Amino acid sequence: MSPLSNIKQNVVASDGSTGAGAGRQLHSSALKSLPRDMIALSDYSAEQIAGLIESAVYFKHKAKHEGQAFHPDQPLKGKTIGLIFSKRSTRTRVASETSAAYLGGHALFLGKDDIQLGVNETLRDSAQVISSMVDGIFARVGPHRDITTLAKYSSVPVINALCEENHPTQILADLMTIWEVFGKRRPNANGILDVFRGLRLAWVGDANNIAFETIATMPKCGISVNMCSPAGYPIPEYVRNLAEAGAKTTDAQVKYFSDPIEAVNGADIIVTDTWVSMGQEDEKAQRMRDFEGYQVSKEMAQKGNANKDWIFMHCLPRKPEEVTDEVFYSDRSVVFQEAENRKWTTIATFNALLGNKSN
User: Fold this and answer.
1) Residues contacting residue 349 through CB under 8 Å, at least 6 positions apart
2) Residue 221 designated active-site
3) Any idea where the Aspartate/ornithine carbamoyltransferase carbamoyl-P binding domain is (predicted)?
4) Active-site entry in 163, 221, 228, 315
């Protein structure tokens, strides 16, 4: 029996109650029709995304409020998840290993110095070999083609733990955090997607993989997006098209800016990320010049007329030039809650895509 079937009328809230904006409309049935792989959330419907968040909320509640250290049914019992990491990681590695353990499975870490991935063996060959010995692959790679190649030739589900174009588990954690905050402010909302409807997120920073996943996912869930990046750092046309298609289904808005003050106007959520990603170290000096004026601060929010109860999010690790300490360590900041939710959404994803079907 699915653990979600135990939720009667409401999704449990992060504080242990069953109200708090949890709503009454559930989307757990949408988890029965998920794609085999999770490459990008653009492949998932809003209802499927909501179902994963509901599942994550449930697992967090059971662990933190009812003391459930491990899933009683052990849906990954006897299963191994291959964790292929070609880039270093903190949150993603901790979240994935603890998630596998919570569900009764075994996480096999395969770092870039441990295997021949794309070095002395092709990705195709590695995918076929590794997938013949594990029950799922969670891969943190570089180019987008690496994750799609792994999925194409793998005989087991592949979950994208990060690539240069996408980071789906991060955005699931972001959405879960947004629900936890705004669900309490909207106690009469009828479900997770109803909590999201009408919110506005301002992205102030680089046009990177987190930005791509954000703008391709949030509008179809009902969240309007103000996307702000400097001239010369555009959002690709295909990502814009995904954003516009999603917005049409919910009446959300997608707007583009280069002036951060304009971008935060009316924002409920202000988000930024690193300006210099791994592999871009040689560009740091130029990027520091290009992103001058992009540091998120209380002054920026005030000048731009952000909504009075705006919150700040960042996927971490954070550097001081991206956001002031005054914001980062303030009551408006939910960055550590957001980081923790990487675990709960990874548990939900592992359970849905890799768990025993009887659980």
Assistant:
1) 38, 52, 159, 169, 172
2) no
3) 36-180
4) 315
